[in-house]
Amino acid sequence: MSNTDMNMRGKIIFYEEKNFQGRSYECMNDCSDMTSYLSRGQSCRVESGCFMVYDRQNYMGNQYFMKRGEYSDYMSMMGMRENIKSCRMIPMHRGQFRMKIYERENFGGQSHEMMDDCENIQERYRMSDCQSCNVMDGHWLMYEQPNFRGKMMYMRPGDYRSFREMGMSGMKFMSMKRIMDSCY
Questions:
Q1: What is the pLDDT of residues 59-83, one digit of tens each?
Q2: N or C: lower Cβ tally within 10 Å for the chain?
Q3: CA-to-CA separations, 117 to 17, 57, 76, 148, 179, in angstroms, rounded
Q4: Exposed, middle or buried by CB within 10 Å (0-12, 13-18, 19+), for 96?
């Protein structure tokens, strides 16, 4: 595999201890259960690509976005309470970004098509909530608070009829951001 191919794929290395110490686990694709490789994780290094990491197995629980860089103590840096239990590589996307957001579940209520980042759906679209969406192009991060703050959820192309049924009960998504290729 060439160096260029490896950079396109992404690479993240998890360490059991802070400051890149202890046993390590190198990951270049999705991993639904990291507990068989490491008993805990305190730091990581993203050598290429972007990843979503989760504090529960099978890509569940709180989600955190990690791009190229070093995270010597990611639990305190990101406010995590649990160790990372699974991770998903975010494929690089070149081209346009398109997502249609809906005020209610099952694509109901007011809707708007987005092609760029939105810091606040209430201000831009006069929407008080977003409960479902259709991602047509690109990969997106949705945040529970305006200005890309609070808990987040990774959205890849597909239909998302109910955020509540996806385990995001009680969360309102108020801002959305494209995952651009600048993280590669």
A1: 988 899 999 999 998 777 676 777 8
A2: N
A3: 36, 29, 27, 9, 9
A4: exposed
136 within 8 A of 77, measured Cβ to Cβ: no
Cα separation of the two ends of the chain: 17
Using 50 as the pLDDT threshold, list the residues of the chain that sit under it: 1-7, 184
| pTM for the model | 0.86
Q: What is the amino acid identity at position 106?
A: N
Give the whole-angstrom CA distance, residue 126 versus residue 122. 4
Q: What is the 3-state secondary structure (H, E, C) of 107-122?
A: HEEEEEEECCCECCHH
At residue 16, what is the residue type? E
